[in-house]
């Protein structure tokens, strides 16, 4: 399943579909689990889980960007003092 997910992601990224830049193999595996014979929670629950994970990922990316920017400013100030 993971290999199928990775292939799908590669194909979608090649197609440059907007909104799929954060799509991961885990998202695809979740989709496959939901659409294969056993449907425990429904499509809406699946979409909500993926959206929540994407929001956390966006937050982590933004946090890392802020931290790197802050570190760069500190380094730049240190170099100017020398």
Give the secondary structure arrangement, pairings included.
Blueprint (H helix, E strand, L loop, with lengths): L1 H13 L10 H11 L7 H39 L1
Word description of this protein:
There is one protein chain. The protein is mainly α and 82 residues long. Helices cover 77% and strands 0% of the residues. It has helices spanning 2-14, 25-35, 43-81.
Briefly characterize the structure.
This protein is an all-alpha fold and 82 residues long. Helices cover 77% and strands 0% of the residues.
Helix content: over 70%
Low-confidence stretches: none
Average pLDDT level = 79
Q: Judging from the principal axes of the Cα atoms, what is the shape?
A: elongated
**Total count of strands:** 0
**Helix and strand element order:** HHH
CA distance, first residue to last residue: 55 Å
Number of structurally distinct domains: 1
Based on helices, strands and strand pairing, what is the structural class?
mainly alpha
H/I helix tally: 3
Instruction: Tell me the strand percentage band.
Output: under 5%
Describe the sheet with the most strands. Answer: none
Radius of gyration: 19 Å
List the main descriptive attributes of the protein structure presented here:
single chain; 82 residues; mainly alpha; 3 helices; 0% strand; elongated
């Amino acid at each position: 399943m993971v290999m199928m997910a990775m292939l799908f992601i590669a194909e979608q990224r090649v197609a440059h579909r907007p909104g799929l830049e954060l799509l991961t193999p885990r998202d695809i595996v979740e989709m496959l689990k939901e659409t294969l014979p056993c449907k425990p929670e429904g499509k809406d629950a699946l979409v909500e889980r993926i959206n929540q994970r994407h929001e956390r990922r966006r937050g982590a990316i933004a946090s890392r960007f802020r931290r790197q920017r802050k570190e760069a400013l500190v380094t730049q100030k240190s170099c100017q003092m020398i």
